[in-house]
Q: What sequence folds into this?
């Protein structure tokens, strides 16, 4: 299957281009996909939702769920904690299933569930995601969540690293935009994205702990993470 293709795109609404024939990888490094991957890696169940309207009935069906998230940078009323990978990593109540809501990342994840296959990735598992995708999916779309109409640096970098891994395995870039993004971020250190608007927001809002966590946990998980029946599931790369 090494004659496959890889394409980089951005924003939740872009998923409609890849409904058929593609595995879609959702990327929201700061912070939704990092929070989701971190939670599941710790053994917690994770259910991303695109809206509060979907979170409320789901919470009623789950046993003492942990409501995690933000909308427009603010934690919604009645939620337990913000969209924080650093905090979720240190909580010990892992038996509580997590309902995750964010401004754009969980919308992207939700939209992708209608595609042939839907994955969730971040800097922690980008290499494992590549290893899992190769020879399983002929066409792969790696999509950044985007924020306020901008394809953020950290998402570009993670998308680029996954696309580059696929290209090295024999896949072809579908368009020039993908080639350009891969070229821009090839060989870049993780902190190359630390001057972007998302990182600056974390600093200004006193959430630098999350930035430190994200930049300090790169390629440290050996699993891919896939959406199945509305839930993020862990798949060790040996499977």
A:
């Amino acid at each position: 299957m090494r004659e496959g293709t890889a394409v980089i795109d951005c924003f939740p609404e872009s998923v409609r281009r890849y409904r058929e024939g593609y595995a879609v990888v959702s990327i929201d490094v700061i912070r939704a996909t990092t929070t989701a991957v971190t939670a599941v890696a710790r053994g917690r169940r994770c259910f991303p939702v695109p809206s509060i309207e979907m979170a409320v009935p789901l919470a009623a069906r789950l046993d003492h769920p942990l409501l995690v998230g933000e909308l427009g940078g603010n934690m919604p009323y009645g939620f337990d904690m913000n969209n924080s990978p650093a905090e979720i990593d240190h909580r010990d109540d892992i038996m509580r299933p997590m309902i995750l809501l964010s401004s754009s990342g969980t919308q992207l994840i939700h939209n992708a569930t209608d595609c042939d296959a839907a994955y969730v990735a971040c800097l922690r598992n980008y290499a494992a995601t590549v290893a899992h995708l190769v020879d399983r999916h002929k066409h792969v779309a790696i999509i950044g969540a985007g924020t306020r109409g901008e394809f953020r640096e950290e998402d570009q970098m993670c998308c680029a690293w996954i696309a580059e891994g696929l290209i090295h395995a024999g896949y072809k870039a579908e368009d020039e935009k993908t080639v350009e993004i891969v070229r821009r971020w090839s060989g870049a250190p993780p902190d190359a994205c630390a001057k972007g608007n998302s990182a600056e927001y974390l600093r200004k809002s006193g959430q630098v702990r999350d930035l430190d966590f994200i930049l300090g946990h790169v390629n440290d998980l050996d699993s891919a993470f896939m959406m199945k029946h509305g839930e993020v599931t862990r798949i060790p790369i040996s499977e």
